[in-house]
Amino acid sequence: MKNTTRIVSGSALATLLLPLAVAAETADANVASATTTESLQQQLDDLQYDYDYRLSRLEKRLKETQKATRTIKANTFNPAISLILNGNAAAYKNNPGDYQLPGFALGGEAGLTPEGFSLGESEITLSSNVDQQFYGQATFSMADDAGETSIGTEEAFFETLALPAGLKIKAGRFFSAIGYINGKHAHAWAFGDAPLVYRGLFGNQLKQDGVQFSWLVPTDTYLLIGGEAGNGVHYPAAGPRAGIGDWSAYIKTGGDIGLSHSWQLGLSHWRANKIQGRGSQGVNSPSFDGKSRIYGIDLVYKWAPDGNTQQRNLRLQAEYFRRSEDGTVNLNNAQNSPYSGDQSGWYAQAVYQFVQQWSVGLRYDRISSSNSGSDPAVLAAAGLSNAGNAPKRSSVMVSWRPSEFSHLRLQYNRDDSTSKSDNQLLLQYTMVMGAHGAHAY
To answer: What is the pTM of this model?
Structure first.
């Protein structure tokens, strides 16, 4: 009877403890399962982030390759036509007719926007694939010149589409690829006027009538190497149209830092060894004969959260150039002087889009010169005497872009190029009608 009681009691105890054991085991399993699920979720998140990052880099490399190879477009044999309208309203404290950059002989299109209301340089562009091998583009500019309309050829070039290994050739008239903003049309600049160093060294912007070679190196990091040869007819060169009058070389590299950051660094060199009769502004019609060399470096950084530029983005950019010249300065009264020039300058700017369509920007410019010659009076008459001045300028702007086809910008400059400071106010509009391709990085 006792044995029976013990058996019954043991069975009862086992019956009571079994659910507890099962519950404990189930709890342990649930904990282990939760831990495993959390670990798997973390691994999945890591894989997703890695996938997004790699996909972003692949998409960017694909776009860069497409730019290099210029694949056939939808309008293959029907030219895309666009019209870009630019207009200005400008006000100055000082007389804009007295404007100068001490130590720099201004040439090309250097100078201030006309005071009051004016029609800026508008453009008509035709572009199309010629066939499976070539792409062509022509841009004609229209500008108001002393009350009369002048029409000029801004660009007219063709470039290859199907060369192997990232190679490309461009020939005709085009903006040089040296520096960062030189290769962009002025309406695509962040500010409404050229940096002082561009105004002083390039007459606002350097064009080439010639040929350009470039190679997009097939590496993980963006690397573009190029060179140009021109006839030297455009400022800051001048002279005979036959043969090579000037040449340049450049290298650009850059990449991404995660999903939100990108950068680009560039080095440039331009040279003209046989300049003849390079004219510049001045009452004595000064000109220069000799050789000129320009060296430059540019750096750009961009930020956009997760690569999305629609709502917020930041662009920082800076450029530095240095020019060395040796030759002779001539005046129209038969006076001349040997001349050795050393000129340099830089600018730095930041543009922040704080909400969709609206941006603000800051820019600071500074240039300097150290010029010498046997006749200081001739150098002064040619604008090459700095009179102890190192021109500088501070700018602030706000812009509104309702869409990619319209743009309004208000800009203020505090220009200290001379001892008499100038307050400058610019209001500008840009309207784009028709097809218009995206601008480079």
So the answer is: 0.82
Tokens of 60: 């960017």
Q: Report pLDDT digits (tens) over 202-217.
A: 999 999 999 999 999 9
In angstroms, the Cα distances linking 386 to 105, 109, 306, 366, 383 are 10, 21, 48, 13, 8
Burial of 105 (0-12, 13-18, 19+ CB in 10 A): buried
Nearest CA to 295 among 316, 325, 254?
325
Q: Do 315 and 363 touch, CB atoms closer than 8 A?
A: no
* Coil/strand/helix, residue 436: coil
Measure the CA–CA gap between 286 and 307, rounded to whole angstroms.
Answer: 50
Span 70-434 CATH architecture? Beta Barrel (2.40)
> How far is residue 121's CA from residue 149's CA, in Å, rounded to a whole number?
10
Closest CA to 395 of 366, 426, 364: 364
Question: Any alpha helices (H) in 346-392, and if so which ranges?
Answer: 376-381
Up-side HSE of residue 223: CA atoms within 13 Å toward CB?
Answer: 6
Q: Where are the domains of the chain?
A: 70-434
- Asked if 413 contacts 395 with a C-beta cutoff of 8 angstroms, the reply is yes
